[in-house]
Amino acid sequence: MANIQSQIKRNRQNEKRRLRNRDSRGAARAAVKGALASMTTGEDSQAAVTAAIIALDKAARKGAIHHRNAARRKSRLVKRLAALGQRPMAAPAQPAGEPAPKAEKRAAAAAETKAKPDTKKPAAKAAARKAPAKKTAKK
């Protein structure tokens, strides 16, 4: 048991995060299992794989799983679906209420700066700098 106040607080924070991450990791795991089950039974596999991809992306975005872990699992799902001769349905670009990915934000910001007119303010005069002291050579 920790007896340092900062570590006690850190333990409380870690427990909250663990419970929060458990929900999104569990949802992603259940979606993947559902997709694999639908592939074996021959049901609507495309929709199940798309739902699993969305769940994995959501878990990665929240930080519950690593983004490369999500990418690897999505790749395996799509490979299995392709082996059945199907393709995944197009996933929605961005679910309502979800924050946009960083790359999209950067692209939007770059487009916005290009659209602005180039109006530069006159440069402020540089502060007068003090001349460096003269070096004296020792003999």
Your description of this structure?
Helices cover 62% and strands 0% of the residues. The chain has helices spanning 5-41, 45-62, 67-83, 102-115. Helix 1 packs antiparallel against helix 2 (45-62), helix 1 packs parallel to helix 3 (67-83) and helix 2 (45-62) packs antiparallel against helix 3.
Q: What attributes does this structure have?
A:
single chain, 139 residues, 4 helices, extended
Concise overview:
The chain is mainly α.
Determine the N-to-C terminus distance. Answer: 68 Å
Order of helices and strands: HHHH
Residues in β-strands, percent: under 5%
pLDDT averaged over residues: 82
Main beta-sheet annotation: none
Identify the CATH homologous superfamily of the domain at 9-90: Ribosomal protein S20
CATH topology of the domain at 9-90: Methane Monooxygenase Hydroxylase, Chain G, domain 1
Helix content: 55-70%
The 3D shape can be described as: extended
CATH class of the domain at 9-90: Mainly Alpha
> Got a strand count?
0
The rounded Rg comes to: 27 Å
Q: Which structural class fits the helix and strand makeup? A: mainly alpha
Write the CATH architecture name of the domain at 9-90.
Up-down Bundle
Runs in which pLDDT lies below 50 for 5 or more consecutive residues are none
Q: Given the structure, what is the number of helices?
A: 4
